[in-house]
Amino acid sequence: MVNIALLGFGVVGSGAAEVLTENKSLIEKRLGCEYKIKYILDLRDFPDSPFGDLIVHDFNTILNDPEVSVVAEMMGGSHPAYDFTKACLLAKKSVVTSNKEVVSTFGVELCRLAKENGVRYLFEASVGGGIPIIRPLINDLSSNCVNKISGILNGTTNYILTSMRDNGATFEDALKKAQQLGYAEANPSADVDGIDAARKIVILAALASGKLIDPKTIHTEGITKITLEETKIAQSLGYTIKLIGYTELTPSGLVALVSPRMVPASNPLCRIDDVFNGVLVDANMVGEVMFYGPGAGKLPTASAVVADIIDIISSQSYAPKTIDWTQATESDQCDFEEYSCNRMFIFRGDLPEFEYAGRVEECDGLNAFIPSNSISEKDASAIADKFGASLVSVYRIL
């Protein structure tokens, strides 16, 4: 009998309890052993829940019970989630989590502690909700060098941008609708300012490179400044604006960033709409591999949490792969000013004189200048200065 404890009984925690209960016979058949949820930690009581009698309020009840071998942390935020996770690993209890904030900030330490204590720390649900992406990067693509990863990693912003494009909604109106539907929080900053996507892309970058970048240090832009005019010019030129988390292993080092991008119709991410997520992995042997599905939600995310629990239980009879990360240093990273990609400069009026070749397209009073070659961040800033007050915005092209 494997005893499991759940930390947090919110949306994901209650979903994990539901999956573990509803699919219990199926999961136990596949595992070849029985399990049970022994404790659920939460500050609240749930007298009307079928799991109400499992609720405990003291974390030490779980920590000090030697029968509990697997803990699922679904509390959100850094503290006490990090503190509880660390304590469990030191007590030789394996931990799974959906908490991208903890993984992206403390992942190096927690993976090391898991290895040192002969247990596991898994976090499939921290990126992409119910989409399998982390385990495929660790296992299925382990024979490949991952060159770059680009992804729509936040369902809230993708819903907003889809509504702006298809329904002509302003950012403000689309955000309000997302909040009414429960896709966005009352304080949507983590989503619309790109913070959530930044945490997720540094986790994917670490899986590709073995180096975990501090998410607070990467270039991060949100979607709050995108206008309907810009979505229209994007459409007229065969693009869709998406908030993209991007990482690439360049000759100068690792780069990671989050920003709105012009995604061409030829790119499969262009066709991912509403609250769905998609991750495009470019590896040196297999080429491009696409992962698509619900990026959030109670049961999709809970499904990924339970998949990690199953992985841990099923691996007790063999030595599974361990995750070895180191903290990225400045020397590991590409100088962001030298990062180069294709660009689109949206402006009003005439094109300034400069040495960069490219084409100019016009749409409803706005113009777009698209240079023929990729442009570094430093050179893009120099071009933007040439436009002066006539410049509306600059977009990276995926």
Describe the structure.
The protein is α/β, with parallel strands linked by helices and 398 residues long. The chain folds into three domains: 157 residues, Rossmann fold (3-Layer(aba) Sandwich), CATH 3.40.50.720; 161 residues, Dihydrodipicolinate Reductase, domain 2 (2-Layer Sandwich); 62 residues. Helix content is 35%, strand content 27%. The protein is built from 13 helices and 19 strands. Strands 7, 9, 10, 11, 12, 13, 15, 16, 17, 18 and 19 form an eleven-stranded mixed β-sheet that branches. Strands 3-2-1-4-5-6 form a six-stranded parallel β-sheet, with helices on both faces. Strands 8-14 form a two-stranded parallel sheet. The longest helix has 17 residues. The chain is elongated, with a radius of gyration of 23 Å. The model has no long low-confidence stretch (mean pLDDT 96).
List keywords for this structure.
398 residues; alpha/beta; Rossmann fold; Dihydrodipicolinate Reductase, domain 2; 3 domains; 11-stranded mixed beta sheet; 6-stranded parallel beta sheet; 13 helices; elongated
